[in-house]
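Friendly challenge for the regulars: who can give me the C-alpha coordinates for this chain first? No prize, just bragging rights.
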Amino acid sequence: MALSYTHTNYQDVHTLTNTGVVNLTYHLSTVTCDTITEIKTGVILPTKSVVLTFVKDGTYSVYLESSTETGAPIIIKSFNNLLNSFIAMIEGLVCGCHKCDDCEECNQCEDYLGAFMKAQAFYMINSPLYNAYYQSILGLNTCLITDEVVCSLLHEKVYGNVVTKDVMIYLLSCYYLAFYYKDHFLANDAAEQDYITTKYKFTKIVACMKKHGIDTTEPLRT
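First reply, four minutes later:
Bragging rights claimed.
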Protein backbone atom coordinates (compact mmCIF):
# COMPACT_ATOMS: atom_id res chain seq x y z
CA MET A 1 0.00 0.00 0.00
CA ALA A 2 1.43 3.39 -1.03
CA LEU A 3 2.20 6.06 1.52
CA SER A 4 -0.58 8.63 1.85
CA TYR A 5 0.65 12.23 1.80
CA THR A 6 0.65 15.41 -0.26
CA HIS A 7 3.38 17.89 -1.14
CA THR A 8 2.31 21.42 -2.03
CA ASN A 9 4.19 24.56 -3.01
CA TYR A 10 1.97 27.58 -2.42
CA GLN A 11 3.33 31.14 -2.47
CA ASP A 12 6.87 29.75 -2.13
CA VAL A 13 5.97 27.69 0.94
CA HIS A 14 6.54 23.93 0.64
CA THR A 15 4.26 21.82 2.84
CA LEU A 16 4.08 18.09 3.51
CA THR A 17 0.75 16.74 4.80
CA ASN A 18 0.12 13.27 6.18
CA THR A 19 -3.21 12.22 4.68
CA GLY A 20 -3.04 8.67 6.02
CA VAL A 21 -3.65 6.96 9.35
CA VAL A 22 -0.07 6.09 10.36
CA ASN A 23 2.86 8.24 11.42
CA LEU A 24 5.25 9.28 8.66
CA THR A 25 8.89 10.19 9.06
CA TYR A 26 10.33 12.70 6.60
CA HIS A 27 13.99 13.13 5.66
CA LEU A 28 15.20 16.40 4.09
CA SER A 29 18.60 16.46 2.38
CA THR A 30 20.70 18.86 0.33
CA VAL A 31 21.72 17.56 -3.09
CA THR A 32 24.90 18.53 -4.94
CA CYS A 33 26.72 16.99 -7.88
CA ASP A 34 28.86 15.02 -5.42
CA THR A 35 26.86 14.37 -2.26
CA ILE A 36 23.45 14.01 -0.66
CA THR A 37 23.51 15.24 2.93
CA GLU A 38 20.58 14.84 5.30
CA ILE A 39 19.92 18.08 7.20
CA LYS A 40 16.61 17.43 8.94
CA THR A 41 14.22 14.68 9.88
CA GLY A 42 10.94 14.60 11.74
CA VAL A 43 7.65 12.82 12.28
CA ILE A 44 4.31 13.90 10.81
CA LEU A 45 1.26 12.61 12.64
CA PRO A 46 -1.90 11.62 10.72
CA THR A 47 -3.80 14.68 9.35
CA LYS A 48 -0.91 16.96 10.36
CA SER A 49 1.44 19.03 8.21
CA VAL A 50 5.00 20.31 8.32
CA VAL A 51 6.48 23.28 6.46
CA LEU A 52 9.85 22.68 4.82
CA THR A 53 12.33 25.52 5.28
CA PHE A 54 15.41 26.05 3.14
CA VAL A 55 18.21 28.05 4.72
CA LYS A 56 19.91 28.75 1.39
CA ASP A 57 19.31 28.31 -2.31
CA GLY A 58 19.95 24.86 -3.66
CA THR A 59 18.50 21.52 -4.72
CA TYR A 60 16.86 19.48 -2.01
CA SER A 61 15.53 15.94 -1.72
CA VAL A 62 12.79 14.87 0.67
CA TYR A 63 11.26 11.46 1.16
CA LEU A 64 8.81 9.96 3.62
CA GLU A 65 8.61 6.55 5.22
CA SER A 66 6.38 4.60 7.56
CA SER A 67 7.35 1.64 9.70
CA THR A 68 6.88 -0.63 6.68
CA GLU A 69 7.34 1.48 3.53
CA THR A 70 9.61 4.10 2.01
CA GLY A 71 8.37 6.59 -0.58
CA ALA A 72 10.17 7.88 -3.65
CA PRO A 73 12.22 11.06 -3.14
CA ILE A 74 10.77 14.42 -4.10
CA ILE A 75 13.31 16.79 -5.72
CA ILE A 76 12.81 20.46 -4.89
CA LYS A 77 14.78 23.22 -6.60
CA SER A 78 14.69 26.19 -4.25
CA PHE A 79 16.39 29.24 -5.77
CA ASN A 80 14.03 31.96 -4.60
CA ASN A 81 16.85 34.21 -3.36
CA LEU A 82 18.47 34.09 -6.79
CA LEU A 83 15.18 34.96 -8.48
CA ASN A 84 14.42 37.83 -6.09
CA SER A 85 17.90 39.24 -6.63
CA PHE A 86 17.41 39.09 -10.41
CA ILE A 87 14.02 40.82 -10.13
CA ALA A 88 15.58 43.64 -8.10
CA MET A 89 18.36 44.05 -10.66
CA ILE A 90 16.05 44.03 -13.68
CA GLU A 91 13.90 46.68 -11.98
CA GLY A 92 16.94 48.96 -11.67
CA LEU A 93 18.21 48.30 -15.18
CA VAL A 94 14.91 48.61 -17.03
CA CYS A 95 13.26 51.34 -14.97
CA GLY A 96 16.38 53.35 -14.17
CA CYS A 97 18.42 54.09 -11.08
CA HIS A 98 16.73 55.84 -8.20
CA LYS A 99 19.85 57.67 -7.04
CA CYS A 100 20.57 59.44 -10.31
CA ASP A 101 17.51 59.45 -12.54
CA ASP A 102 18.75 62.58 -14.31
CA CYS A 103 22.04 60.96 -15.36
CA GLU A 104 22.50 59.77 -18.93
CA GLU A 105 23.56 56.37 -17.62
CA CYS A 106 23.94 55.35 -14.00
CA ASN A 107 24.34 51.58 -14.29
CA GLN A 108 27.74 50.00 -14.50
CA CYS A 109 28.78 47.26 -16.91
CA GLU A 110 28.95 44.87 -13.95
CA ASP A 111 25.24 45.47 -13.29
CA TYR A 112 24.27 44.13 -16.71
CA LEU A 113 26.69 41.22 -16.47
CA GLY A 114 25.49 40.36 -12.97
CA ALA A 115 21.85 40.39 -13.99
CA PHE A 116 22.59 38.31 -17.10
CA MET A 117 24.51 35.76 -15.01
CA LYS A 118 21.60 35.42 -12.56
CA ALA A 119 19.04 35.13 -15.35
CA GLN A 120 21.03 32.51 -17.24
CA ALA A 121 21.76 30.56 -14.04
CA PHE A 122 18.11 30.49 -12.94
CA TYR A 123 17.02 29.50 -16.44
CA MET A 124 19.59 26.70 -16.67
CA ILE A 125 19.01 25.35 -13.16
CA ASN A 126 15.28 25.02 -13.79
CA SER A 127 15.53 23.76 -17.38
CA PRO A 128 13.37 22.80 -19.19
CA LEU A 129 10.67 24.58 -17.12
CA TYR A 130 10.93 27.99 -18.80
CA ASN A 131 12.24 26.92 -22.22
CA ALA A 132 9.02 27.22 -24.24
CA TYR A 133 8.10 30.60 -22.79
CA TYR A 134 11.60 32.02 -23.26
CA GLN A 135 11.83 30.92 -26.88
CA SER A 136 8.38 32.30 -27.66
CA ILE A 137 9.05 35.68 -26.02
CA LEU A 138 12.44 35.86 -27.71
CA GLY A 139 10.66 35.25 -31.01
CA LEU A 140 8.29 38.14 -30.39
CA ASN A 141 11.25 40.47 -29.93
CA THR A 142 13.63 39.09 -32.58
CA CYS A 143 13.27 42.09 -34.90
CA LEU A 144 13.88 44.53 -32.05
CA ILE A 145 16.98 42.68 -30.88
CA THR A 146 18.31 42.19 -34.41
CA ASP A 147 17.98 45.89 -35.25
CA GLU A 148 19.80 46.84 -32.07
CA VAL A 149 22.63 44.38 -32.75
CA VAL A 150 23.10 45.81 -36.26
CA CYS A 151 23.12 49.34 -34.84
CA SER A 152 25.69 48.29 -32.25
CA LEU A 153 27.98 46.87 -34.93
CA LEU A 154 27.76 50.10 -36.94
CA HIS A 155 28.66 52.03 -33.79
CA GLU A 156 31.69 49.77 -33.37
CA LYS A 157 32.88 50.48 -36.91
CA VAL A 158 32.52 54.24 -36.47
CA TYR A 159 33.60 54.73 -32.88
CA GLY A 160 35.58 51.57 -32.16
CA ASN A 161 33.45 50.24 -29.33
CA VAL A 162 30.30 48.15 -29.06
CA VAL A 163 27.20 49.57 -27.37
CA THR A 164 25.52 46.69 -25.53
CA LYS A 165 23.14 48.39 -23.08
CA ASP A 166 19.91 48.09 -25.08
CA VAL A 167 20.65 44.57 -26.32
CA MET A 168 21.25 43.41 -22.76
CA ILE A 169 18.01 45.02 -21.59
CA TYR A 170 16.07 43.27 -24.34
CA LEU A 171 17.59 39.87 -23.59
CA LEU A 172 17.16 40.25 -19.81
CA SER A 173 13.55 41.26 -20.36
CA CYS A 174 12.90 38.06 -22.30
CA TYR A 175 14.18 36.02 -19.35
CA TYR A 176 12.11 38.03 -16.88
CA LEU A 177 8.91 37.68 -18.89
CA ALA A 178 9.44 33.94 -19.34
CA PHE A 179 9.92 33.46 -15.60
CA TYR A 180 6.91 35.57 -14.70
CA TYR A 181 4.42 34.17 -17.21
CA LYS A 182 5.30 30.55 -16.49
CA ASP A 183 5.12 31.01 -12.72
CA HIS A 184 1.84 32.91 -13.09
CA PHE A 185 0.43 30.09 -15.22
CA LEU A 186 1.45 27.48 -12.63
CA ALA A 187 -0.25 29.34 -9.77
CA ASN A 188 -2.90 27.33 -7.94
CA ASP A 189 -5.49 30.09 -7.65
CA ALA A 190 -6.15 33.81 -8.06
CA ALA A 191 -4.57 34.63 -4.68
CA GLU A 192 -1.31 32.97 -5.68
CA GLN A 193 -1.41 34.73 -9.06
CA ASP A 194 -1.65 38.04 -7.21
CA TYR A 195 1.24 36.98 -4.98
CA ILE A 196 3.41 36.23 -8.02
CA THR A 197 2.49 39.52 -9.71
CA THR A 198 3.52 41.41 -6.57
CA LYS A 199 6.68 39.35 -6.10
CA TYR A 200 7.80 40.10 -9.65
CA LYS A 201 6.86 43.82 -9.36
CA PHE A 202 5.22 43.09 -12.68
CA THR A 203 3.00 46.16 -13.07
CA LYS A 204 5.93 48.56 -12.66
CA ILE A 205 8.57 46.61 -14.56
CA VAL A 206 6.41 45.71 -17.56
CA ALA A 207 5.45 49.39 -17.95
CA CYS A 208 9.16 50.25 -18.11
CA MET A 209 9.76 47.50 -20.67
CA LYS A 210 7.04 48.88 -22.94
CA LYS A 211 8.86 52.24 -22.94
CA HIS A 212 11.86 50.39 -24.39
CA GLY A 213 9.65 49.02 -27.16
CA ILE A 214 9.65 45.46 -25.81
CA ASP A 215 6.70 43.24 -26.70
CA THR A 216 5.46 42.01 -23.31
CA THR A 217 2.56 39.95 -24.66
CA GLU A 218 2.07 36.55 -23.06
CA PRO A 219 2.73 34.24 -26.03
CA LEU A 220 1.39 30.92 -24.74
CA ARG A 221 0.10 29.05 -21.70
CA THR A 222 1.85 25.68 -21.47
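The two ends are 34 Å apart (CA to CA). The mean pLDDT is 87. Your move, everyone else.
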